[in-house]
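Assemble and predict.
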Amino acid sequence: DAKTTQPTSMDCAEGRAANLPCNHSTISGNEYVYWYRQIHSQGPQYIIHGLKNNETNEMASLIITEDRKSSTLILPHATLRDTAVYYCIVRVVLGGGADGLTFGKGTHLIIQP
Amino acid sequence: DGGITQSPKYLFRKEGQNVTLSCEQNLNHDAMYWYRQDPGQGLRLIYYSQIVNDFQKGDIAEGYSVSREKKESFPLTVTSAQKNPTAFYLCASIGVRRQDYGYTFGSGTRLTVV
């Protein structure tokens, strides 16, 4: 699976859009981009995933560049409860795989009141 | 509601003791995983199982053992051979159908050696 690079931490004001970047310059054509988040002392929570098109669900939007070398997770109206560590992951298989998921250190997003 | 239940939430172990962490899911998921998380770090894979009665070692399996006798259950035993067991342990599951793209995680067990 391709490696990802994320900033260690970010701040965002409550009510504003939080934009979390992720670089995955070595991504291959059949690798998906996944985003998860982990609130302190809880299990990670799936947010969204995509292959090459932009995606939106009730939690967030995912913008993937045309060359697929980077992506941005957007939380449109951040709340204090969005404070968490956000993980960007790329991997081939869409379902259960033999290697599970590789989580790096992610981005610690802090929403300021 | 379907989900994954891990128990206990907190566990204290004396040195030299084996302890077993429970993981139960009612999602009808085929694949189950155990991860370890140390403070400020990402997740590291301990063991995984894709079907009943079969499991494979992950990156840090030494000192741990698992069983998969039922689809719903994937208990993890931390043995006395694990030299640094204090950590946060997470269980996860996922279906193997094409539409099963999101891993579901339990709420974790925090193990402390005393």
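Residues 34 and 52 of chain B are 15 Å apart (CA to CA).
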